[in-house]
Specification:
Blueprint: H1 2-10, H2 20-23, E1 28-32, E2 38-42, H3 51-101, H4 108-132, H5 137-157, H6 161-184, E3 200-203, E4 207-211, E5 221-226, E6 238-243, E7 247-248, E8 250-254, H7 257-261, E9 267-270, E10 277-284, E11 288-294, E12 297-303, E13 309-312, E14 332-336, E15 339-345, E16 352-359, E17 364-374, E18 380-384, E19 387-395, E20 398-406, E21 412-420, E22 428-432, E23 437-442, E24 445-453
Antiparallel strand pairs: 1-2, 3-24, 4-24, 5-6, 6-8, 7-10, 8-9, 10-11, 11-12, 12-13, 14-15, 15-16, 16-17, 18-19, 19-20, 20-21, 22-23, 23-24
Length: 456
């Protein structure tokens, strides 16, 4: 009888123990069967074991454990990021403290750079807060610290303006001495506007300025530089435009080089619907941006003062031929000492580059020359002193000028003028006659080169 009761106990719901008092209170009864065997009758609260509910509970438990592990890993990752941010904030705090203790030792650019870093740090903290989807005293303390430092920087900048002005003057003198020192080290000396030479002799090492104004390495298609024929008052202006695909949606204008570095644009041109462009071989010339327009396919001119748009179709130009590094590079604009140019390939030229002179007033094609350079084999092309130069890749880090066409003599030449690339691919390379530099947009970075001509 005891064995039977133990068996019944094992089969009870959830393994619950049947109290002994229930055995004697009618829940368990015994009788003798027809064959003389002992028969027990047990009345349990539930007639069936809830196996389906237990299975469901086990699955829910597994899911919860997995979610907890994921959240723990995220917290570990965020903890590492937070340590980095806190370290940067500590460094920034020390710099602000130095400014506060002796503000006369810093020029205006230092204050601007501090402001930029504070804004970037605030954005990082905000991003981390959104990722955690929560608020905490730590984040509130970080925001408070950033706001306090911003106020201190603003206050320090107004401190003793006369001393800051003297510092800027001394800093300017130091820069001038540095430039003279660089010239003594055989840095290329430009002779602006002089085309009394036999062509390009060499290209300097690249100057890598910084990542684009969007701070986004994914914005690989674009261009930057200066106005090749600036109007009065805008001689120091820089421009920039880029996107994640070979398209044209906006342009940023900066009053000078420092504003470019600080990503502080004085004007942004958002291209309106219907005027969007494609390709990335655009330039600024005579206070106007020239870029490629696809509907209809042709060249577009944007006046930077009036924001007026104008377009012209080039009947011979084909949208079937592009440079090797990027699609949709069908029209390539360039400017030199002689004016504005556009390069393209046509069906008639069988894919070879055609160099055309642009009549700036009429905004049409004034003259054109057929060259021997296949566009689809070239990395890019530009014009300097009436000569078109085509480039191609040598290896991952080296580009070369391999071909030239002189519009005055109609002479073609083969070259092997090597210059370094910051990264393998680039989407915009153009010459600027105002400073005799090449401007390259290299995989999202601003890069420039000095050009040395053979004047012997």
């Amino acid at each position: 009888m005891l064995l039977i009761l133990l068996l019944l106990q094992a089969l009870s719901p959830a393994g619950a123990w049947i109290p002994s008092e229930d055995w004697e209170s009618g829940n368990v009864t015994a009788s003798v069967g027809e064959a003389g065997q002992c028969v027990c009758h047990v009345f349990l609260p539930d007639t069936e074991f809830p196996a389906d509910r237990v299975q469901n509970m086990q699955q829910v438990s597994k899911d919860l454990i997995l979610e907890v592990e994921i959240q723990i890993k995220k917290m570990v990752s965020y903890e590492g990021k937070l340590e980095v941010y806190l370290s940067e904030l500590k460094d920034l705090t020390m710099r602000v403290a130095m400014l506060e203790s002796n503000p006369d030792d810093y020029i205006k650019l230092d204050f601007e750079l501090l402001r930029v870093e504070l804004r970037e740090f605030e954005a990082l903290v905000s991003q981390l807060k959104d990722s955690l989807n929560s608020s905490s005293p730590m984040f509130d303390a970080l925001y408070t610290e950033i706001r306090n430092m911003t106020l201190i920087v603003n206050q320090l900048e107004t401190y003793d303006k006369s001393n800051l002005e003297l510092i800027r003057i001394e800093f300017g003198k130091l820069q001038k001495k540095l430039e003279e020192c660089q010239e003594d080290q055989d840095v290329i000396k430009p002779d602006i506007g002089n085309c009394n030479h036999t062509g390009i002799m060499s290209i300097s090492k690249p100057t890598v300025v910084q990542l684009n104004a969007h701070l986004n390495a994914g914005f690989q298609y674009g261009g930057w530089g200066k106005d090749s024929k600036p109007i009065r008052g805008f001689e120091s202006m820089y421009w920039y435009g880029a996107y994640s695909s070979p398209s044209v949606y906006d342009f940023y204008l900066y009053s000078d080089y420092k504003k470019l570095l600080l990503r502080s644009a004085f004007k942004i041109h958002d291209i309106p619907s219907g005027w969007e462009g494609t390709g990335n071989n655009y330039i600024v010339h005579g206070n106007a941006i020239y870029y490629q327009h696809n509907t209809p396919f042709g060249m577009t001119k944007l006046n930077l003062t009036s924001s007026k748009y104008d377009s012209r179709v080039i009947p011979e130009a084909s949208n079937r031929f592009s440079y090797v590094y990027s699609p949709n590079q069908n029209l390539d604009f360039s400017a030199d000492e002689n004016g504005l140019w556009v390069m393209y390939a046509s069906e008639e030229s069988k894919g070879k580059l055609v160099l055309a002179k642009v009549d700036e007033k009429a905004f049409g094609i004034a003259d054109q020359w057929k060259t021997g350079a296949y566009k689809q084999l070239a990395g890019n092309a530009f014009v300097a002193c009436g000569v078109m130069y085509a480039t191609r890749s040598v290896d991952l880090n080296t580009e070369e000028i391999y071909y030239s066409y002189d519009t005055r003599t109609k002479e073609e030449k083969q070259h092997s003028i090597h210059f370094q690339k910051f990264q393998e691919k680039y989407t915009n390379l153009h010459y600027n006659p105002s400073d005799q530099k090449l401007y390259m947009y290299n995989n999202g970075y601003y890069v420039s080169y000095n050009v040395k001509f053979n004047r012997s």
